[in-house]
Amino acid sequence: MSTLTDPVARPLLVSECFGPTLQGEGPSTGRRALFIRLSRCNLSCPGCDTPYTWDWSRFDPSRETQRAPADELFRWATAQSVDLVVISGGEPLLQQEALRPLVRHLADAGRRVEIETNGTIVPSAGIIDAASQFNVSPKTASFAGSAVSRSTRINPEALRTFASSGKSIFKFVVSNERDLDEVSQCAYEFDLSPVWIMPEGTTRELVLSRMPWLADEAVRRNWNLSTRLHIILWGDERGR
Question: What are the backbone dihedrals phi and psi of residue 160, each rounded to the nearest 5 degrees, phi first?
Fold first, then answer.
């Protein structure tokens, strides 16, 4: 097994590290957390709120990305008295082999490590064993864009692997009724549970306006509801 000091271990492509802050989404909403946001993604969703991790038509990768050794990230995370570390992106599992030693050592140091993923990449046995939880967010057709095929944004093998891991929750961004029907189909087809739905929106006004409707739907469909706490508190502010 690779270690943090393994001379052949590759550094991670990192967009930013920040915190302590609060986790804004999913079952850990409101918990104090540190964020390690990795660079690069295999999707290019028009509604993405972190385009600086992948959209090189608008952002300069040399300015938005740094190569960080795992031991440097480990020291940063463990120097702070926060027990939740969220690995986000971009798409973190594009770097899962380089990421695994960091996740393992953070877990061994008593940190809870949640990995946020779009669910298109099959997680390795090693990363499943190391992580505390996967926050899997499959993309609906409306969020990913009409030009993106279902086979690009939905990977049956990956979703079934996450579902069978016992460490995954499934969080869908929703903006309309069609999205809800797609969530239902995806959850049934791949036996996804538990399911969380969350309003699409990068302003507090839009998030709050969609919450009552989604609350009713979550109760009716036996799902859970997530807000976007960081948007409500701070707006669409990069770095939160």
Answer: -65, -35
pLDDT in tens, 145-163: 988 999 999 999 999 999 9
Instruction: Quote the crossing angle between the two packed helices 70-78 and 96-108, to the nearest 10°.
Output: 30
Residue 209 lies in a domain: no
Average pLDDT over residues 36-59: 96
pTM, two decimal places: 0.93
**CA 195 vs CA 26, 154, 172, 184, 224: distances in Å:** 10, 16, 8, 9, 6
Distance CA 148, CA 157 (A): 19
In the 8-state DSSP scheme, what is residue 95? G
Neighbours of 235 (CB within 10 A): 12
Angle CA 69–73–74, to nearest 5: 110
Q: Considering the chain, what percentage of its residues have pLDDT values greater than 70?
A: 94
Residues spanned by the domain of 18: 12-169
Cβ burial, residue 207 (10 Å; 0-12/13-18/19+): buried
CATH code, 134: 3.20.20.70
Half-sphere exposure of residue 32: CA atoms within 13 angstroms, side-chain side: 7
Question: How many domains does the chain divide into?
Answer: 1
